[in-house]
Amino acid sequence: MSEGLSFERIQEAFPGQVVLKALTQETLFPRVPRFVVENLLARMGGTAEAVERVRRLLEAQYQGPGSAEWIKDQLLRKGRFVLIDRVAVQVDLSSGSYRAYLPSLGDHPVEVSPKLAEEHPGVLFGMWGTMELVYAGGRVRLTQFYPFQASLVRLESYLQGRSRFTEEEWVDLLLGSVGLEPQGLSRRLKLLYLARLAPLVEPGLHLMELGPRQTGKTYLSRNTSSEAFVISGGKVTPAVLFYNQLTRRPGLVPTYKVLIFDEIAHTAWEDPSILSILKDYMESGQFSRGGRTFLAEASLVFLGNTDSDRVPLTRVLPAGLKGDTAFLDRIHGLLPGHEFPKITPELLYQGPGLVVDYLAAAFRHLRQKAFPLDLEAPKGYTQRDLRALRKWLSALLKLVYPNKDWPSSFWQEALGLAQELRNRVYEELHHYNPDEFPRRRGGELPYAEASSPLSWEEVFSLLPSDYHALFAGLRGLGFPPPQEGPEDLVENGQVVGCSLARWGERRLVAPGLGRYGLEVTPDSDPEAVVAWLEGEA
């Protein structure tokens, strides 16, 4: 953290919106989301003295799963009960009513007014807050609900607070506020972390990040805003994502500001109509369902794990998305996931920072702000490329210079990062369809595929285990490792299979793919394979 960013100085700039981040990592708050804890701590001073008060409050009002019978006993005895919990509302078409479910009450339904979903649409998918339950006539009703959302009616106070810090101090304060220790991070890594936050401030900014595990891909969005929703694997349908025509209930896209597809390789896109709706939305910000057209501004984030940082990273995408250039072209940026370090205790910030719920409220206001950008398209860039650059540039400027007083140096730095992130998408497009997406800049891709050989250790980590013995035989004969391990085999823009390894233009492939190289089985003779690779067979 930059020198001079003391609790007192931040509190002076943002009165009542500062908390010591170390307090939110206490084991005293094990089952409650961080934005809930920080909201409560900030209300009670934001210092160590507030911890005990919040602990007592949560002990009294947060019951958690397994408390259903005790809560029902209290309702039966007193007729009223106040608690902190997550409420999720469901529509009951048979009775024309709304019912809420709380983890603390298990499967026991709670009646709610239709106005609750109108005032707080997030309750349709789950929302934290303080609520009052009333028992009368054999029924439990939710009569009062106060969501955990910071109050920020106007953005001016946030902008005034920002003006009290230098660029370096503000970047560090942003990272510290979302729980990351900025000390020791390079300038580039700081900007890449801000790029992870970009969908929170820029509507319709769609990004993808594929990289190693445990680097905190969902950490920032999940812990910064209650308006970000995470889908972790499973089947994806138009009713869940966009609009349920039976219940007339809006889906996740029109309800949340950011929709995160975590573990994207484990999501199933089985409905053939969902991809066309998805692409339509990503392109235009609108979609059609049941003869109606809906507008939305959710940013979509696609996250996945891959051990390789070589093009194509998108080989890990599930069927339906993998190799679909129309889908990939609508992604505004591909983050270099292998540059992010694994989340360790040393990377978690302990000092003073802004309450994340307050920061999320400011980001919500910034989403509605337009930052007019006079940007000339680089040579060879398409309209989609230019749109991606504008969105990234707008997002980074909103995060670091929300007062619109940025220096030209930061503009150029942000533009350079925007071009890099979009160019990484272009690399994937070029791999799948080089005719439609030819090389740029005199025949070179900005981040060209590596041509240096792999090590044998890397080869074995990528190969199916059945083929390890065959490739061990190749190594035993003194043959060098390949330039590439398994690669997608593309025909007419579609993936038709996967190779085993490639030396120059010569590939080894599994049975049935002989038109792309030499068919080999786990029992193939290594000497015959080497003879073919050397052009002797």
From TrEMBL:
Domain of life according to the entry: Bacteria
UniProt feature coiled coil, ranges: none
BREX system Lon protease-like BrxL N-terminal domain: residues covered: 12-135
Alphabetical list of SUPFAM superfamilies matching this protein: P-loop containing nucleoside triphosphate hydrolases (SSF52540)
InterPro entries listed in its UniProt record: BrxL-like, BrxL_N, P-loop_NTPase
Listed name of the protein: BREX system Lon protease-like BrxL N-terminal domain-containing protein
Gene source species: Meiothermus luteus
